[in-house]
Design goal:
The chain is 31% helix and 26% strand. By secondary structure, the protein is an alpha+beta fold. It has 2 domains: 202 residues, UDP-n-acetylglucosamine1-carboxyvinyl-transferase, Chain (Alpha-beta prism), CATH 3.65.10; 208 residues, UDP-n-acetylglucosamine1-carboxyvinyl-transferase, Chain. The strands form 7 sheets. A 4-stranded mixed β-sheet has the order 24-25-1-26. Strands 2-17-19-18 form a 4-stranded mixed β-sheet. The N and C termini lie close together (7 Å). It binds ligand EPZ. Ligand EPZ binds next to helix 1, helix 5, helix 6 and helix 12.
Length: 421
């Protein structure tokens, strides 16, 4: 398992380009199963999670041709209708094949994902979505088995007690494209990744209205055809570099990003004292002093994203006063706080709230990454800390950030990857 050695204390300066969004690319790749024609996804980030999804598509029997960042998927001929535990346990987003396989073949088995470091990850809303389209679903021996002679349109409310579900909205929307008649998804997630998937499905010939609002209408039943698609930029990677600029008191220009997807994040950066300039596809963040204390509450889009909570917790650890961070989506997503305390932070956890007493400086230490965004928070803390930080288990980071250390080092950071075979 690789490790990072980080020597902190250098302000990051320069320009960095974000990759395309992992959380858009994963459902886009699964959506390619909806047609027997070839689909092409461009500028795909070279990430562990993407490799896992491609492996799953190959296991299902789709032809996968990858030429650097261009991926061609052809799901024709004899295909398996199963997502096995061995792959799903590595990546929860494997559940994105549920909707397409069911809609295309009327029958599929997808392993239940099981536990996760960020808290419970139920799938009841995914099941509710496909059941509304006429599927019969049984859960046995760790697998969801879904069957339907033919799917039909239906109306379904997908807002759970934690708010709308991105995954369930996308899965139901994908299945509905091949279901006869009109489907209405109420309480739909509005995340940009939902909109991007709808754009791809529309390019394949689906008729979808309202993606990006809480009510999506899908007029389904037509065969879909192949299409070519360029996914949206990764808003979470852009937000992570914005925090990197602020925590090291540097100046970073982030290009190929979409500031419009980061409105809540930019508001918080300005509130804590960072200077933020934006244009259509570029964000520039600079600070030269400690952040002011602020309060953050995570919420579904367009609210403050849970996927940037850990990174902001690291930043606020250095604030001039006490901040609070309330996690409303995955309530136990705070493992990074305990590791940050090992670096000198003063964070108390009370239920789903972190109370962060800002300290003047962090000091390097050996810390352990627990999930993707927690790892990013530790890297950010290490870049700001005095001395050397060693981060163990960085494979979590490789799931969602492409060559993070290379990008950070181009901005003047000092991260060394230690390969351990
Ligand atoms: C997506 O996960 C992202 N993953 C997550 O990013 C992100 O944190 C999350 O959305 C929220 O924005 C991908 O896109 C691959 P949800 P997803 O269904 O779709 C509850 C990262 O770091 N819920 O929107 O699985 C759930 O427990 C990852 O890149 C149900 O109750 O999240 C949560 O409280 C981590 N029943 C809330 O809904 C269900 O059936 C939102 O979850 C499904 C979800």
């Amino acid at each position: 398992m690789d490790r990072f050695l980080i020597r902190g204390g250098t302000p990051l300066k320069g320009t960095v380009t974000t990759a395309r969004a992992k959380n858009a690319v994963l459902p886009l790749l699964a959506a390619c199963l909806l047609t027997e024609d070839t689909c092409i996804i461009e500028d795909v980030p070279l990430l562990e999670d993407v490799s896992t999804m491609l492996k799953l598509l190959k296991t299902i029997g789709a032809r996968v041709e990858q030429n650097n960042r261009t991926v061609k998927i052809t799901a024709r001929g004899k295909l398996n209708r199963e997502a096995p535990y061995d792959i799903v346990r590595r990546m929860r987003a494997s559940y994105y094949v549920l909707g397409p396989l069911l809609a295309r073949f009327g029958n599929c088995r997808v392993s239940l994902p099981g536990g996760c470091a960020i808290g419970p990850r139920p799938v009841d809303l995914h099941i509710k979505g496909i059941t509304a389209l006429g599927a019969r679903v049984t859960v046995a021996r760790g697998y969801i088995h879904a069957r339907a002679k033919s799917l039909h349109g239906g109306t379904v409310m997908l807002e759970g007690y934690k708010g709308p579900s991105v995954g369930a909205t996308i899965n139901t929307m994908m299945a509905a494209t091949l279901a006869r008649g009109e489907t209405v998804i109420e309480g739909a997630a509005c995340e940009p990744e939902v909109v991007d998937t709808a754009r791809f499905l529309s390019a394949m010939g689906a008729s979808i209205k309202g993606a990006g609002t809480p009510e999506i209408h899908i007029s389904g039943g037509k065969e879909l055809a192949g299409a070519r698609h360029l996914p949206i930029p990764d808003r979470i990677e852009a937000g992570t570099f914005a925090v990197a600029a602020a925590i090291t008191r540097g100046e970073v220009e982030i290009t190929n990003c979409c500031p419009e997807h980061l409105t809540a994040v930019i508001t918080k950066l300005r509130e804590l004292g960072a200077e933020v300039e934006t244009s259509a596809d570029r964000l520039c963040v600079r600070t030269n002093s400690r952040p002011g204390p602020i309060n953050i509450s995570t919420a579904p889009y367009p609210g403050f994203p849970t996927d940037l909570q850990a990174q902001f917790t690291a930043l606020l650890a250095l604030a001039r006063g006490t901040s609070t961070v309330t996690e409303n989506i995955f309530e136990s997503r705070f493992l990074h706080a305990l590791e940050l305390n090992r670096m000198g932070a003063s964070i108390d956890i009370n239920g789903n709230m972190a109370i962060i007493h800002g300290v003047e400086r962090l000091t390097g230490a050996q810390v352990m990454a627990s999930d993707l965004r927690a790892s990013a928070a530790l890297v950010l803390a290490g870049l700001a800390a005095r001395g050397q930080t060693e981060i163990l288990r960085i494979y979590h980071l490789d799931r969602g950030y492409e060559q993070l250390e290379k990008k950070v080092n181009q901005l003047g950071g000092k991260i060394k990857r230690i390969h351990v075979s």
